[in-house]
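Sat 14:20. Reprocessing the chain from the morning session after the first attempt stalled halfway. Input below, unchanged.
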Amino acid sequence: MSPRPGVLRAIGVIAVIAGAVASLLCMFRVGRSNSSLLLMGLFTIWVLAPFAGLLVADQLAQRWTPGARAALSWLTLALGLGPAALYGVVAFGPPRPKPASWFLLVPLAALVILAIGVTRWSRRSRSESPR
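Finished this time. Tokens:
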């Protein structure tokens, strides 16, 4: 049984906020020996970018069809919690040769996946809307 759309959306937003906080905590753990405030600031912006994108997409989706909104809600859950889980493995798992690379590549992948989904679902919603 699938949750109601409003409940699924609320869970997705909570997942985004929790994922953003957990991701930042992991990033600061991995970067704790880095003394460059500028670099840590840039990493913070980059790591938070997909989470901000998810919240913007959630607002844009209010005009989409119910199916497109539900698909975005499921993607929000996946991209809200998935990166944080990966970062947790990097931060608390066995040592890695270049742990910072995860904090560069995961946000890029998340943003690409989000852009593809938003483009697809917004186009579908426009084509299905009554004229």
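The chain has one domain: 5-128.
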